[in-house]
User: Fold these one by one.
Assistant:
Number 1:
Amino acid sequence: MDPREFDVIILGGGVVGAGTMRDCAMRGLRALLIERADIATGASGRNHGLLHSGARYAVNDPESAAECIVENQILRRIAAHCIEPTDGLFISLPEDDLSYQNTFVEACRKAGIGAEIIDPQLARQLEPSVNPDLIGAVRVPDASVDPFRLCASNMLDAKLRGAQVRLRTAVTGFIREGDTIRGVHTRNVQTGREVDYYAPVVVNACGVWGQEIAQMAGVQVGMYPSKGALLIFAHRVNNMVINRCRKPSNADILVPGDTVCIIGTTSTRIPLENCHKVSVTPDEVTLLVTEGAKLSPALSETRILRAFAGVRPLVSDDNDPTGRNISRGIVCLDHETRDGLKGFVTITGGKLTTYRQMAEQATDVVCRKLGVDKACETATTPLIGSAGRSYEEVAREIWEAPSTAQKAATARLGSVVSEMPKRSRQDEELVCECEEVPVWEVNNAFERMGVSSLTDLRRRTRVGMGTCQGEFCACRAAGLLAKAQDCAERERADLLKFMGERWKGNYPIGWGESLREAEYTQWVYKHVLGL
Amino acid sequence: MRFDTVIIGGGLAGLVAGISLQQAGRSTAIVSTGQNALHFFSGSFESMKEAPERLTALFAGAGIRVHYNPGVRLTPLGTFREAELSLEDISLFPEAKFADKALIACVPGYLDFFSAFLAEGLEKQGIQCRLCSLDLPEELQEGSVELRSVQLARLVDRDWKKIVQQIRLLIKDEDAVVLPQLCGLEDTSVPERLRQEIPARVVFAGTMPPSIPGIRTQRLLKRRYEVLGGTYLTGDEALDAQVEGNKIRSVRTHNLDAHALEASHFILASGGFFSKGLRSNPFRVWEPVFGVDVDFDEDRNAWYNEEFAGDQPYMKYGVKTDAALHLLVGGQPRENLYAIGSVLGATRPELGSGAGLAIRSAFLAVDEILKTV
């Protein structure tokens, strides 16, 4: 068989694309995923890392609330190593209408979300960082999820089942015969190599960029690009997700994740052509800090690590200027029935939390088109890394008394660590001290996870995400990458690009400790290292 | 406690000023938080285009040998930068192609020495490179320890003869050997001994901070200062000052609490943002001890260059001074308060930047103080 022929081609390397690829692979399809940049570069990697209970949408968007809670429960089982079951609080502050609490709890109940009104005193005991002025609290099953890990695990799992991935490969056009899509023209953005791939079905899972891709295929999908700005704090001040118990608004969710916490978001409609280069303005920083401190006053004293923004792939359906009222529900379009274009499916809308359900719906359509009769098993089959045991158990199987660094690496990789070759002392050296990433984990990412740059490495290992923002680890990792790829010249340029990318998220919050760190980084890289 | 001069900051600028004043018979104290820019010193004196006798004599007195050979130095990432005055163990070359063949020796598992970048950088200059690994001392082969520069330098200083033996076995026809700059911390003679015993040109290439030549320089200068009778208060922090008219009367520190440091003169050598000589919040930049005038942009959007590689405006911010380096408050000079080193930012471009700024401004302020009786 021609190596360019597949059963299905999936466009987009976000969590929905990766999930769809895995689902297709599990149903026995020969799947190819094509991604223009790297995994989780769009909204999949630019969000709170919140596994919604659905409570946030219960009042205004009951359909997505119900989708969220179902998936929330499934992902705790199948993606355990990507999820931290923190639970969440919806707090009412003195300026909030406490009667909204009843509306909220009732809506949660209807959607099937366990929401329990608790005493504000109890809330303070459960979550000591919460604003002590709170007048009401509701406990819900929110959780924290590492979206990079989730995306990478789906991709690795699918690859082990025979699916193929082409990263840094852009779709330049569709191969069309009459009213049928037969495949795609692609170009590797690094090498310039052009290849055509063929499949009877192509799935558009490109998020907000899905509109351009659909247009290229000759159909219309109206996206409503909505920018959300977020701030990462250098410490984890809270252990539970903290939300405001009111209609969804700006900067009213604080999510703990790993060693940090993230406040967000804003919601601003932006032109589609600006989706590639979203940045955070000083006004947005001020808003996020001010509103965030209402959830947890400690935030006003906590160092901000960086600012970033993502673009929600909302699907346009009215003229709501904020996008807050557009449903977060799943949109799965079979363009054959909708537009008369055969072999083309768009999966969009939805949320990080509902990615698996989105993948299932898209794969169902693909299977129907291909005449494959095999049920979806992703709701019950754990992802690679989540096979049954806790990361502590896995770490103890390998190391008698695992260090915090060994535990951290095992937490990131999950049960897959026990299948890796034995590590030497040199392999245990730390590349990144902030996130405790050892050499062997970096090498694993090089060997198995399709890393070609430091930014790719960051998404898979957290190298450079910590308090030093790459000041020390970027150089070390670059040294390893230069050796692994045997190309120091390209790596030198990559290092500069990586530091530039870190700086883009640092300067909007460049004061106090962050400015100290930035000045040090400038001296080290320019004057000492000679970059 | 009363001194002739109290110096806030124990980095290069503060120590050069302190040693000069002690040599001139003045009694001084240095208040140091413990960290300063010498800890990431490249070993070459930034913006020193000359080698003033006054400086080389001061360094020689401290046991620090420098050399002046305008040319280029090798950076840790394998590029070359112009350099003139440097510590003796920093090699300066008239041109980047300093050898035909180089042996680059790495320490296995040590991630802060960038052999792949060095090799690529040297090859680009037409220097053929070969990489080799040095055996680790036994105590580093087992157990979970982080290999960082200071720890390795201690072992190299102790076991330098073993390094020489290994290199002698590894070297073939190379005319240069590139070693990580991990020696001369405890025993300052080691860099020179390695050069004498290894049968090729030995070039030390820098590592990630902390910088071994930087820490060595800091230690030797501090020792010299103390031998001359200076009082170096390590791990203390200046909090605020008592002012009388246009003069500073005393400075209160964290550790000395009620016993304020009184002096006839005060020198602010507290460094830039990193050293906390300058502080910032979203709205302003200020100098925390004396509350003196600071030159900065009111609009925070103007503080940054969006490009990492570009010049960063905030790094130019610094305290305002008159011609004699007196600090200003509300535009009025404080008669007995001087600023030296990085706390000046780029407000005095004629004095240079980095190490050059530290040294020139220190001598200038010392001369002003010595004019007084």
Note: The longest helix of chain B spans residues 149-170.
Number 2:
Amino acid sequence: MGKPTWRKLALTLAIVPALGLAACSSTGGRAPEPEGNGGGGAVATTERIKVAVITHAAPGDTFWDIIRKGAEEAAAKDNVELQYLSDPDGGRQSQLIEQAIDQGVDGIAVTLAKPDAMKGSLKKATDAGIPIVSLNAGEDRFKELGVFAHFGSNEQLAGEAAGEKLKEAGLKKPICVIQEQGHVGLEARCAGVKKVVPDTEVLYVQGTDMTQVESTATAKLQADKQADAIIGLGAPFTMTLLKAKATANSKVEVASFDMNSQLVQEITKGNVLFTVDQQPWLQGYMAVDALWQNYRGGFTIGGGQATLTGPAIVDKTVAEKITSFAEEGVR
Amino acid sequence: MKTRKNKKTEELLEKLEPKTSDNLLTLKGVGKHYGSIIALRGVDMVVDPGKVTCVLGDNGAGKSTLIKIIAGLHQHDEGDFTLHGSSIKLKSPRVALDAGIAAVYQDLAVVPLMPIWRNFFLGSELTTGVGPFKKLDVQKMKDITKQELSDMGIDLRDVEQPIGQLSGGERQCVAIARAVYFGAKVLILDEPTAALGVKQSGVVLRYILQARDRGLGVIFITHNPHHAYPVGDSFLLLKRGRSIGYYSKAEITVEELTAQMAGGAELAELAHELEQLGGHAEELAEAEAGAAAK
Amino acid sequence: MSSLTASPSHKKTTTAQDERVGKKSTLSILLGRPEIGALVGAVALFIFFAIVAPVFLSPASLATVLYGASTIGIMAVGVSLLMIGGEFDLSTGVAVISSALSASLISWYFGLNVWVGVVLALIVSLLIGFINGIILIKTKLPSFIVTLASFLMLTGLNLGLTRAIGGSVSSPSIADMEGFQSAKAIFASSVNIAGIDVKVTVFIWLAMVIIASWILLRTKIGNWIFAIGGDEKAARAVGVPVVRTKIGLFMAVGFCGWVLGMHNLFAFDAVQSGEGIGNEFLYIIAAVIGGCLLTGGYGSAIGGAIGAFIFGMANKGIVYAEWNPDWFKFFLGLMLLLATVVNIVVKKRAESSK
């Protein structure tokens, strides 16, 4: 190390931009922004209200992007100022609720992954007269916490729906791949599958390292020659399972939960049998819209019951219809 | 006392100067302070090839600051530090090494987990080959290490063993041999015998003489006048950052040296106090009588 | 002056021997190498899984185990060198993803040939290493703290910039861009050996181990690395360039992160911006199992590789044995403990007493 290395570094820094200009890619890359994002429609004429959507999203999960898109579209339509916040830690999520109350929001939408941690702050919100809805998690507890509507999909039901579809296809020994050990929702999905297909086996992989996901799944497929299906609980993970299937020279069918545009393409091509979509866009959209409805006329949708947004099975026929929506990022 | 010291120092310096027009290393009125703490003030010293200069003093006397200045770890704030007649301020140990000043520290001399030959050539490794394929000339370094150590009197068949397995005295000797090999002109030894037993100390003292005989100017720092006296040619006494005496061997005895270091009166007082506490007045009297009889 | 001989302390003669020292056999020399504990552990583990899960021995399984080992091993090479040099880097896990995201987002946003992104990602990775090193030198804080801070900052940057530039938490697909296929061939392809597909990362890993070992054992810089890790003050006192070497080590770790990041990008196309967290400890574990002292100054790159291999075997072996995967983490922790104990015991026996 010494002067020569610095000179080389400076030279590289000078040359690279020049090369870069010469080396543009004619394919792929960022598409130019479409003219006015599907807009042009009328916005609600009600007074602008503030809504806080507070979830337990861990940073970096693509699933929540779709919920957010739904919430943002509803906000745009309903003349709502949207605050989108999240923290996977129950205590801190509760603090975010209290902050929203302090800011005087007109409505709060929460996910109830840890309902006991939310109890205190939700009571404060009710006392302050702020209407609350819940989404995604908390189907069995929302009423007692003063929440008037819930929009979500039951993970166990979703698992059972997947199980039924597998049974239909004559598959008897699926491997259910969980990318985060101890995650209640993921465990519930596999439990649902197992209820319908008793020979289901669970495989834990390290979701924070895609290479380990691939090698562990490959190992499992090499070890377990009896398995006839493998299920990923998230679109990116299912994509990796496809790679593992190829490396292991396996003949298993691949199924999935949740969606992104790549997964939809794979379903259309027939590489993935189906995916169970809980239509997260709807969860975000309905949560914000329900609060606006409540503001508009005191309406409470749902009749005290949870409004289910899924499960919706997306197989080859459905996939072909929704390809463009998946590319848009709403499905 | 002060006048006497100055006169003595000047006499000594005069004695040294005409002999060699350019001393190897001189310090004139050198001082250093850390913030408001004065670590060293007004120190004079001369180092010549083939001579051992001992720097004596109790803890806190400023010995460590003095060698750090000479070895390039710190820079002096006042006074003049010359090497071969020209004034210098050493910016780093690397610069000091290049100037021919090598320091051997009490416990910082070597890296315990590394083999002896790697330690010997640390910072000055021999390589063969060119460009990115330059690699260590391992065999040559091992051979030289073995050779140099045996020249200095240590016979080690296996220079691959971690240097931490050698005894404290042997490690010091390896470090001294290293300094000698790499052409040090001035060798600073920082309390090399402080943690050693009697026999090991003897070994190290013999090495000091070997280095001296090879023409190096040796600066030997210690708080033990009984180690310093046999090997030293001149003695610099430090107390609380100042010089309290600078003598050549002819001018002082080992008892005077010891008394000067601790302060004669303090030592007598201490002996008296210990006597009182210990209550061994009779045995002490016997022992003194016996010693006097010898 | 007569040539005085110090008391003979380690004479290896067959006749006159110092009564305190025994003869040093080849076996004890071998036992003194830093990797020996790890090697013993690796062999034991291999035999264990071979017995418990016969499918473990099939070539396809070995290829899978090697792949799992290589993605830890590539980073373990850099982390081992750094640990021998006396420092930690906790930002390695996310730095890998930062590199992948840099290449992906830059190429995508500016519509460039993917190779440009690859080169720029290299600069980013080296820069991250450089900054880690500089902050360490200037603040004189423990590297644990400095790199913990950069770990947090990089995590935030990964998430924030990916959303800001790409619009979601997953980087956009670049598979249809120019240069992708050629880059994939280099960073994320497979080599067919006797009918088995071995991922290219295995070969990259082995090459890196060889180069790192050569640097460590046969160059000046290697000597400096051992010295700085063993006793930084002693090294500085004899003129070893401590600052430059340490910064260089952090940049070497950055380079390893770039290699793995590029593999991640071209193997999986879309990079999840929250990935990478947690791996930094696996890299350190691999280095420690491989014989690198946590306090520095001792260890080897080969040891780190064996540690990564042990991790790969344990990780995949449990799956091949079809055990309950709930126990995996317990097993890994137990392995680490046993391996470290074996290392210490073996090292103590190999060293003569002082």
Note: Chain B has two domains: 2-262, 264-294.
